[in-house]
Amino acid sequence: MGAAHVLTGVDCSLYVLEGRTPEAVVFPGSVEEVAALVALAGEEGIPVMPLGGGTNLGIGAPPARLGLVLGLKRLARLLEHEPGDLTATAEAGLTVGALQAELGKRGQWLSLDPPGAERATLGGVLASNASGPRRHLYGTARDLLIGLTVVGADGAIVRGGGKVVKNVAGYDLPKLYIGSFGTLGIIVEATVKLRPRPDVDRLVVARFHDVKEAGGAARAIMASDLVPAALDLVAGEAVRLLGPGGEAGAALLIGVDGILDQVEWQCAEIGRLLAPLGLAETRVLDGPPRDLAWRALGEIGRGGTEDVAAVMKWGVLPAQLAEMLDKGAAIAQRNGLRAALTAHAGVGIATAVLAGDGAHGNAVVATLTEWRAMVGGAGGHALVEWAPLAVKERVAVWDDPGPAARIMNGIKARLDPRGILNPGRFVGGI
Predict the structure, then answer these.
(1) Which of 313, 288, 324 is nearest to 383 (CA)?
(2) Edge to edge, what strands does the sheet with 279-285 contain?
(3) 422 lies in a domain?
(4) What's the pLDDT tens digit per position in 12-34?
(5) pLDDT tens sequence across 403-426
(6) Which residues does 144 contact at the CB level (< 8 Å), separation at least 6?
(7) Are residues 59 and 85 in the same domain?
(8) DSSP letter string over 318-360?
């Protein structure tokens, strides 16, 4: 490996997680080195935690032991780009931002926009199934993956899928690793589908007096002939990130892309459609102002910055979102906290950020517990995306998986019989 790529002792302090310090941090420079390290760790019974850009490192239960942190930042090459086939193959440590920049030189892009694209790596995005507002139209990583190279728990290099879009032979095993958080194997390379870059990309910010009006507007958009690329609800403290807006208490963000005539028609149609639904103000953003608005919302609450006390993600039916955001804000206020709320209106995924100057742990725990009960009562699910260790010790990170736990544990036992890959951090203690 070379001494420069192996950290031990006090040098591991930058990689402390949930109060645990790694026994070593290593940065392999090839797929073969990753395989050799994992095989060695398996022989010695040392747990291995893969690390990309660290943007989703806060997700998961606290590890019982943080053995070997395996950083993939040196595996950061774009291996192949076939513009004619609209495909690309890249190493897992390549950041999404760097990948998009390279693809953009040929007028193409990977239609994923996870928060923190400058830090988020391709492997990390796949392992956490991270996505952003454009999942409304373009889907998630699961929809864009064609092929995958993974290092198994025994050090074997396993390749699945292919390098062409029309690849339908056999079981689609690569998708098993999407969203597995490194518990089944370490993603080292991936082949993905691309799209041509749209000619025009604009953001319509529509403000409303309350979240119920904004929710009704979202339903109207989805029932119309419009085809937005993104459709996000913004409520609570998060509205402030959009700048001054009078007394508007909620907003609907509609991303529109495509050819110029089509985009201009959709922007005009959005204003006409929403005018009788309580629309207080509308703005159309392009260029840097558009990017700044999306980036501000994507970064809200990430990494426990400033006075953020906890971050929870909800999954409910899209028709329930406005009601959940309204109730969630009221619960936080009743416990003396503030809530910044954003949601992908078309898919039913919300991010709820708790904040408060010197927030008391009991209030945070009470709010998260009430939020989980509220979401569960609506038939949805909740995940503590980030919280201090003291809070995680009192509030479960994941919902109870129920009967699915038996199947998940069976898969884990087959692929990682020694239990060395990121153990204990995933659903059901996997």
Answers:
(1) 313
(2) 279-285, 200-208, 250-258, 230-236, 338-344, 349-355, 308-315, 381-386
(3) no
(4) 999 999 989 999 999 999 999 99
(5) 999 999 999 999 999 999 999 999
(6) 110, 111, 112, 138, 192, 193
(7) no
(8) GGGHHHHHHHHHHHHHHTT-EEEEEEETTTTEEEEEEE-TT--
* Dihedral Cα 310, 134, 187, 410, nearest 10 deg: 70
Q: pTM, whole model, 2 decimals?
A: 0.92
- Is residue 276 located within the same domain as residue 368? no
Q: Which residues fall within 8 angstroms of residue 254, CB to CB, at 6 or more apart?
A: 203, 204, 206, 221, 226, 228, 230, 231, 270
Tokens, residue 283 = 């703005």
229 part of a folded domain = yes
Distances, alpha carbon 141 to alpha carbons 46, 297, 385, in Å: 30, 20, 19
Domain span at residue 248? 200-298
Compute how many other C-beta atoms are within 10 angstroms of the C-beta atom of residue 294.
Answer: 21
The CATH number of whichever domain residue 184 belongs to comes to 3.30.465.10
